[in-house]
Amino acid sequence: MKRRTILFIFGALTVIFFNSCKQKTIKIVQNDCAQKYFLTSDTTKGSIIINIETEIPSDFMNDTILKTIRKTIVSGLYGKDYDTIPTDSLAKRYVAELIQEYKLNNEPLLEKMNKKGRYSFDNEHNLEGFSLLSDKIIFSYGISRYVFMGGAHGLNTRTFYNFDLKTGNKITENDIFVAGFEKPLIELIKTRIIEQSKEDPELQPIITLEETDFWVDAIKHNGNFYITDESINYVFNPYEIAPYYMGQTEVVLSFERLKNLLKKGNIISYLYEKKKIIEEHK
């Protein structure tokens, strides 16, 4: 997945403003913050490390649509209580609340333990929000979050939204696929998992999913996808269709492979029709 490299300055809050004139495509501002907070003056007792790098929609020709999209994205990043907070305050407030939660959860435990013991309460929270496909029709957005609260390992998840810029509504599978798409789509996803294992030299080739640790019955379309100019890509987070050790599973479904499932005149049709025209004229 291609994404823009973001300049990250530790401990700083950076906001970049774009031209305020109305735009036909979504414009964004950067909302970053980073902090390391120690639980006590004894730095060996643990700390929470927080890194935030998010792009927030800031300008569009239709203010109502912009507010709808911004509310969805900000709620996904920070929580529902944040959608009315000014952009330049989002990251700072979120960091402050994470630190407060860290203190409330860990200070009482620390006090109960032997002060001479070697206890450490290390937490980490990394949050990234990034724009993907962005034109006059569709705006796609991704959220990557890593949370570690002690224990054997942390958890990394990715969540995606695709917006119709005519309405501000999220694009769903029902907007794209024909009626009865569910079973064929599930089978295609399973087929692509096997195919991708053979296409990637770093992966162990899969013969049948039943001989792997995938939870085969759990493999279904999950609504967590992002749109590119060539495909629809589904993302399954740890524990969703497989054990943690197998990590995330991303399944790339090209428009060509999906052609029998795509609804006529759907919102993404311009993407593969344009690609078809270009190929025909080569």
DSSP helix fraction: 25-40%
SS-derived structural category: alpha+beta
Runs with pLDDT <50, length 5+?
Answer: 1-21
Number of strands: 8
Strand order of the largest sheet: 1-2-3-4-5
Average pLDDT figure: 89
Shape from CA axes? flat
What is the N-to-C succession of helices and strands? Answer: EEHHEEEHHEEEHH
CATH superfamily assignment of the largest domain?
A: Fervidobacterium nodosum Rt17-B1 like
Assess the beta-strand content as a share of residues: 25-35%
Q: What is the CATH class name of the largest domain?
A: Alpha Beta
Find the CATH topology of the largest domain. Heat Shock Protein 90
Number of helices: 6
Task: Describe the sheet with the most strands.
Answer: 5 strands, mixed
What is the rounded distance between the termini? 26 Å
Radius of gyration: 22 Å
Summarize the structure.
It contains six helices and eight strands; from the N terminus they run E-E-H-H-E-E-E-H-H-E-E-E-H-H.
Task: Give an overview of the whole structure.
- This protein has 282 residues and is α+β, with helices and mostly antiparallel strands.
- It contains six helices and eight strands.
- It has two domains: 27-171, Fervidobacterium nodosum Rt17-B1 like (Heat Shock Protein 90, 2-Layer Sandwich), CATH 3.30.565; 174-280, Actin, Chain A, domain 4 (Alpha-Beta Complex).
- It has helices at residues 63-78, 87-112, 173-176, 182-199, 255-258, 269-280, and strands at 27-38, 47-59, 123-134, 138-148, 155-164, 225-227, 231-236, 249-254.
- The two termini are 26 Å apart.
- The relative contact order is 0.11.
